[in-house]
Amino acid sequence: MTATPATCDRILDAAERLFAEEGFYATSLRQITQAAEANLAAVNYHFGSKQALILAVFRRRLDALNKARLARLDQAQEGNAAPELEDVLEALIVPALAFTHGSADDGHRFMRILMRAFADRDDQLHRALSAEYAHVMRRFASAIATALPGLSERRLRRQLDFIVGALTYTMAESTSSDAREIADDLVQFAAAGLRSAVSVRHPDGAPRTLEIHS
Amino acid sequence: MTATPATCDRILDAAERLFAEEGFYATSLRQITQAAEANLAAVNYHFGSKQALILAVFRRRLDALNKARLARLDQAQEGNAAPELEDVLEALIVPALAFTHGSADDGHRFMRILMRAFADRDDQLHRALSAEYAHVMRRFASAIATALPGLSERRLRRQLDFIVGALTYTMAESTSSDAREIADDLVQFAAAGLRSAVSVRHPDGAPRTLEIHS
DNA sequence: GTCTATACAGTGATAGAC
DNA sequence: GTCTATCACTGTATAGAC
Asked: What is A57-198's CATH number?
């Protein structure tokens, strides 16, 4: 066996790195095959198309992530006892954030920027829009801080990220067309989440254990 | 004055429609200019680049959306009385969902599919990944239903969309690198939101007024 | 099977004539 | 302002070498 990985894997590695650095659209197959020291046609031979290569790059990481999620859920469910709500949510959330915001010493290194590249079609576009409407979000953060005092600026910003994430995802993905009903649900969901952040956490982020549900 | 709009506006209209139907990447400038009955070079003359055209398409709608948000927030804040938390959140959320899930008779018609095109780099990729890992989300929906009975399937799915949206956005956007702290916050945020959905709403979605905060 | 060289139609961008 | 012609570059397909 040789010291260098097979062509197929070298392409995957190079593609992941370049996609994360420059985005899918901006990265050409010629860049990828050159970095992988492979021939241009090798991409289509091994993967079929650029689209399929992108999918393969994601699949390699998401398989591991979802395996970790299900393992954690299995562990919480073993012994026939139904797990607490918080345990279920931890199985869903903790592995995901460990992959994107955790230690940077293994293959997860590019997962976060890969998610970025996935989430927005083009970094430039997303950055431009964020900057353009940043004053709107600042006004809302201020209004929330007035209506609900007691959150540090850092935590308020994080909570607002949760809300904007839920809203953005719902705007794009939801299939129901009853805007008012969805909005009512999201307002209630967000308000409950915000209030729980004030009532449970210390004003500054001192370490804590989740005791709210015990 | 003529009956047909200026070239610049015809390009914007055609671009918005085609982007929404086929995505940014799949739509060529030649398609757009042909549909707008304009010359190919007119795009670069009026907007500078394809990237700038995409930005202009979004800006036209997002300007209106954020204006509506701020107007609603102004209205809630008038009379020197600090608005309730729910009123602030409604100003943020209701106009957004009205734009994407509201009446389809005006220029907002394509906003939702435009958001789709914005959120995922390529519909095919997103669909493929969703289908591939749908069983994971189904298992989590089931575990949540067990831990927290009383939500209809439809509402549980919607709440789960909120959580996945917040998680996805955080994975891509958050700058902090403390995975455990963010995860703790999100778990708590999601749990509080879920519990409030059970305790306030009728089991089936009967009309209601938001009375939780009064 | 694995990989290479090469050709092809279509892309965004631009310079310069009108 | 608008248009034509042209550029370098893209993803893809295929014929054939090893």
From this structure: 1.10.357.10
Whether the pLDDT of residue B82 is over 80: the answer is yes
Nearest nucleotide, C1' to the C-alpha of B38?
A: D2
Number of A/B CB contacts below 8 angstroms equals: 342
Closest among B154, B147, B146 to B206, alpha carbons compared: B154
Cα separation values, A162 from A146, A158, B52, B65, Å:
19, 6, 29, 20
- Per-residue confidence band for A115, with pLDDT thresholds at 50, 70 and 90: confident
A55: nearest Cα among B120, B169, B170, B31: B120
- How distant is the Cα of B156 from the closest Cα of chain A, in angstroms? 11
What fold characterizes domain B1-48? Arc Repressor Mutant, subunit A (1.10.10)
Interface test with B, best of A50, A93, A106 (most B CBs within 10 A): A93
Show residues, CB within 7 A, near nucleic chain C: A 6-8, 38-42, 45-46; B 27-31, 40-41, 43-44, 49-51
Could you tell me where in chain B the CATH 1.10.10.60 domains are found? Answer: 1-48
Report yes or no on whether pTM surpasses 0.70. yes
| Mean pLDDT computed over A26-33 | 96
pLDDT in tens, B127-184: 788 899 999 999 999 999 999 999 999 999 999 999 999 998 898 887 777 899 999 9
Question: Does B170 contact chain A (CB < 8 Å)?
Answer: yes
Cα–Cα nearest to B204, from B152, B148, B149: B152
